[in-house]
Amino acid sequence: MSLLPAPLAPIRPAFLTRVTPVARLTAGMIWLVAAILTLDPAVPARLVVAACVALVLCSGLPLRRIPGRLAPLGLAILSLTVFSILLSGSNADRSIAAIVELGPMRITGPAVSAGLAVGLRVVVIGLTTLLVFGPSDPTRLADSLVQQWHAPDRFAYGTLAALRVAPFMAGDWATIAAARRLRGISPGGVTGRAREFGDRLMVMLVSSIRRAERLALAMDARGFDSGIRRTHFRELRVGWRDLLTVAVALAVAAAALALPR
Amino acid sequence: MTTAGPALDRQPADEGIGTSSEPRAPGGPPSVRAAGLGWTYSGRTRPAFQGLTFELEPGRVLLVLGPSGSGKSTLARALAGLVPHVLPGSWRGHLRIGEMDVAATPARVLGERVGLVFQDPDCQLVMARVDDEVAFGLENRGWPRERMQARVPESLRQVGLAGFGRRGTATLSGGEKQRLAIADILAAQPSLLVFDEPTANLDPPGMYATVEQLAALARRREHTIVLVEHRLEAALPLADDVLLLDDEGRQLAFGPAGSVGRGAVALLERSGAWVPQAWRGAEPRLDAAPQPGTAGAGSSMGRVLLDATDLQVDYPADEEGSHRALDGVSFRALAGERTAIVGPNGSGKSTLLFALAGLRRPDRGSVRVRALAAGGEPVEEMRDPSRLRAEEIARRIGMVFQDPELGFVARTARDEVLATDGATRARGRRGGADTPPPDSDGVLARFGLGHLAGESPFQLSQGEQRRLSLAGLVLRPPAVLLLDEPTFGLDRRGTEAVIRLLDELRETGQAQLLATHDPRLLPACDRVVALDRGRIVFDGEPARFLAEPPYSPPGPWRGGVVPTEAAR
Amino acid sequence: MSALSATGPSVGPSESTRWRTVDIVVVAAIAVAFGVVFWFWDVYVWPWASFLSSPGEYAISGVWLLPAVVAPLVVRKPGAAIFAEMVAAIVSVLLGNQWGLDVLLSGFVQGAGAELLFAFVLYRNFSPLVAALAGAGAGVGEALHDLPVYYSSFDVPYQVGIVVLDVVSAAVIAGVGGWLLVRAIRRTGALQAFPASE
Ligand SMILES: Nc1ncnc2c1ncn2[C@@H]1O[C@H](COP(=O)(O)OP(=O)(O)OP(=O)(O)O)[C@@H](O)[C@H]1O
Ligand SMILES: Nc1ncnc2c1ncn2[C@@H]1O[C@H](COP(=O)(O)OP(=O)(O)OP(=O)(O)O)[C@@H](O)[C@H]1O
Ligand SMILES: [Mg+2]
Ligand SMILES: [Mg+2]
Q: What is the pTM of this model?
């Protein structure tokens, strides 16, 4: 039984589904760096707009499922923004006028602006991630890493194989929890719960290691470690779409950083 | 003795045969010859197998039989060169496949001649998509792309999976997965095929399809085939020769199937393996099978312990819509009654057990259970298990999961028995001296695990783990015991041991429900409930079920005989 | 003895640093398991912890660094810490957590922090002390990444506090906790395919 969310897969062909994963990864990293370069909220805000446009126009992803997918972000953004504002260094700087002053607590304009910037950063990260990983599956990512970036193929495909075990692990985790409840085990208190977490983790790791050992043997039986140079069933070539994607990402990032407020 | 092989295996890729991307012509099926063959895994004192001496002529089918732990899987690994080239250990004697000496031939050379299919389809599929999966072995062997693109659909067609290329491997049924695994190895055109219990995890239709596939391969006589299989009723008609191992991994007999078989019944029986019905000339039968209705704790027999009404369980929607795993299932379990829950893969058996245990709250309907007092009388009113606290639920419901390892809660077998009941421990801490410590070692001894009391539960063999998970439920037997595939992967001796333990537990008046794919268990049950697509399609006596199974194709359910189509 | 035996006399130095298939897949699987746990943690635990106590949640941040210690303790091969942290990061991204792409960066620096320590002892010493130091190393890596990305606007005393919490939590939870976890796994006999010690 699986607890994992169904992967977000494209439902129609789109521009980004035909861009190689490493090109999308490069483009995504460019935006990520741009978003963390400054504490000016305008920069991540512009990138958020750009990312939304890209999601709608060229990702091919089912747009209705995206809000649900991003929901866990909400609380993280809220808390990061609020605490970034409350704990900002500029609050203590008496030369900056306070917007709010409650007894010893003061909040200044720069603090609010920096807090917003940090919160928006997380939104940029979340949206870019969808653009990078949404349009194709992990197999294509591994193919692309190996064929374009010459990543070591045994590691790439070994990881891919291990990834197939993930749904079983989620099921194992649920079963382990269920089994312990049925055996009457319900520790209370912080240390009891930490121990329980460790015990469950141990059982899950043991079962994952056993599965992985069997999988590795099956891979070796099919010549995975034969020392022969691997060929590729599916070829990925860098094309104009990849160059265009990276170029546009760079241009957007530069514009977001350079435009006046 | 030391092998010369592994050193060769580690030479750089760009020398010798490895660089030729064109695999050599199949060259006809090879013979297999073993002389004084033995293997001991490093860290073990006992050999996995020893003194094997046999000759298999090209194009014949060898069936390897033996009890659990007799080294059958290890022999399969040796034929594929995983032993000694990948797994550590020490090698004795000679094994030749055609002109190749296994110990002296690099694994990659062996890999081009030998294909190995493992027992568990989930542990041998590597890629997420069917065509990538078939291509995986070809990529490893350096095939050029054009040849792969021609070969992949061809091998899918060969196993009846034409048009499945773009499917996700995770969406396939068990039988389809196993046929995909066969396509994987056929793709590389090996001439020796080795199957290690290829049907062990399959429901009857899946097993039927896989056996059919093996039969088709055997008929073509283009491969030499070695088959390890517990389900002999299915495998026997395919075999030309039989190799019989005892529990120490020694060779008991080797020869043509017909002649070895009947002479070996006594040997097989003694070693605890399943004996094919065809050899014994009688109905398959569990020695420990009790007469229905005779067990149970007198007065409480027949009282309702568990009552489920109109259960409906929906799994959350994905791209393909929502899954209704259970659809209006109503069910009562009586004290002292043992019920088998059967049905194809995905029919909802596990979901039903989870719902009954209160681990998955139904979307509609309700579950109520009661506990048993020490004498076996039901006590207290019926309660909803999903609302009970952990200590309360442990007295009412126990569950043995398909993978017993996931259910272990303690560091040693002894603690595992004691952990059964959290309440006992809590009382021990408070009350102290007046409650004598329960006799955990006595329980372990009764389950044949006495010598393992101090061992980690994870160290035990599969059969031992299953017995231990039952032993963990003895000190405070729950009123209702749920078992998911309790005899999965066990030989006859292991299965009988489980049934005996279940009989013992039933003495307390316990109600037992077991989900199973194994028709041999049914005669040991009082009642069979068959599920199909989340609904109950049969509820009645085992004999009636076996006579008229509500499935198509019926396959091995009908008296344990494989349909003639496969047997030809 | 086979030349591939983990403890056999015929194991050469090159053999012991070469990654076998089983090493790769087992480390990846351990990392995937942690990735699944992280995803759950990120989505269901962390938001509440951080909302209720920010930035005190950093006291439990060591959980994220467990793979960087556990994987090297299991396979004892160069690169295990970075490889495991990166895979765990990728998995939690693929499942969809709030940190997204950014965990690729943080995974790398965290793994590198631990990797440096294991390299410093030449992948020979796997004692609890080394594990704790490696955990702390990963914690330093984590702080180096998180300060500019998430806490750049915080007042300096808070930033110092976060670094201290980070490193201590990393040494205790990832370092010592990871070592205990591997010992428990080893006792189950699941690691027979790997170099043993003790
Ligand atoms: N990788 C391994 N390392 C060490 N010992 C092993 C390994 N695999 C199997 N063994 C041991 O070798 C012996 C033979 O095991 P094997 O799996 O070959 O038996 P089997 O006949 O296939 O049993 P079953 O019917 O239960 O599958 C057993 O004692 C087992 O514990
Ligand atoms: N967590 C889940 N999410 C979505 N669907 C699920 C989940 N678990 C089970 N299902 C689906 O519910 C149905 C019933 O599954 P279940 O595991 O109960 O079947 P089963 O009869 O135990 O099968 P098997 O014989 O293979 O063990 C199947 O179609 C399955 O794919
Ligand atoms: Mg076996
Ligand atoms: Mg099931």
A: 0.83
